[in-house]
Amino acid sequence: MESQEKSPLGHAVTLPPRPDSGNGHDPTALGTRDNVEVEIRDLCLSYDGRTQTLKHIDMDITKGQVTAFIGPSGCGKSTLLRCLNRLNDLIDGCTTSGSIVVGGIQILDQTLDVTELRKRVGMVFQKPNPFPKTIYENVAYGPRVLGIHNKAQLNDIVEKSLRSAALWEEAKDRLHDNALGLSGGQHQRLCIARTIAVEPEVVLMDEPCSALDPIATTKIEELIHELKKQYTIVIVTHNMQQAARVSDFTAFMYLGELIEFGKTEKLFTTPEKQATEDYITGRFG
Amino acid sequence: MFKGFLRSGDPFIWLTGGTLAFSLLMIAALIWIVGANALGFFWPDQLRAVDLQDGQKILGSVRAQEVIPQSAGAGQEQYRTQFQVANRDLYGSDFRWVDDSLMTGHAFPEQAIYLERYEWGPFFGFLTTVRQDGEIVAEGFDQAWPKFLELHARTQDTLDNIHTIEKKDIGDINYELEQLRIEVKRTQRQETDPTRAAAKIAALEEDIASWQQAYEEKAQELAALYQENSRYHMTVQDINGKEKELAIAGVVRGFLPNNMNWFERFGLYVARFWEFFWEDPREANTEGGVFPAIFGTVMMVIIMSIVVVPFGVVAALYLREYAKQGPLVRAVRIAVNNLAGVPSIVFGVFGLGFFVYAIGGTLDQLFYQDSLPTPTYGTGGILWASLTLALLTVPVVIVATEESLSAIPTEWREGSLALGATKWETLQKIVIPGALPGILTGTILAMARGAGEVAPLMITGVVKLAPTLPVDGHWPFFHLERKFMHLGFHIYDVGFQSPNVEAAKPMVFMTTLLLIVIVIALNLAAIAIRNRLRSRLRFGAF
Question: What is the gyration radius of the CA atoms in chain B, in angstroms?
Answer without folding.
Answer: 31
